[in-house]
Design goal:
Blueprint (H helix, E strand, L loop, with lengths): L1 H13 L1 H8 L12 H23 L3 H6 L3 H6 L2 H11 L8 E10 L10 E9 L6 E9 L5 E8 L1
Antiparallel strand pairs: 1-2, 2-3, 3-4
């Protein structure tokens, strides 16, 4: 339980604006003006970016994960802070043995953030010797069209 509390505190401290928004109840589905195929394509792209980023964490590739994060994430979490803290908290979990998608939500608004395209993915993850935990990863489509992680938390 202490490990989970530490991870949550670290995650919320790093990306507080995004983490608070993603741990609250989902804002609901995307507006009806987007067709189902567009929403599904956005969800798939956001999920792919989230999983790639989590794989970097699983492998202890802390710097690479930070580099692949969104501009907002990198602004809110300086590299030095990230490198000082993440190996001590997320690193002790090791690589996930199993990670199942629990829910994927596309939305165009995220509390405290500008309007855009956001995908939140809730994973139920199993780490060696630990109870299952939820990892919540929120990605954003940035102006260059690439999806990047803008928030991460565990519970």
């Amino acid at each position: 339980m202490k490990l989970s509390s530490t991870l949550v505190a670290l995650s919320l401290g790093f990306a507080s604006a995004c983490a608070v928004a993603q741990t609250n109840a989902p804002a609901g589905p995307a507006p009806a003006t987007l067709d189902d195929r567009t929403v599904a394509a956005n969800e798939a792209a956001g999920q792919a970016a989230a999983l790639a980023w989590l794989t970097q964490l699983d492998r202890g590739m802390w710097g690479e994960a930070w580099d692949q994060s969104s501009r907002v994430f990198r602004t809110n979490v300086p590299l030095g802070t990230w490198m000082d803290n993440v190996p001590k908290t997320r690193g002790i979990l090791g690589a996930a043995k199993e990670r199942k998608v629990g829910e994927i939500i596309f939305r165009t608004e995220l509390a405290g953030q500008p309007a855009g395209a956001y995908v939140s993915v809730l994973y139920v993850s199993q780490f060696p010797g630990k109870e299952p935990m939820e990892e919540i990863v929120t990605t954003v489509r940035e102006p260059d069209g690439r999806w990047r992680v803008t928030g991460y938390s565990t519970r």
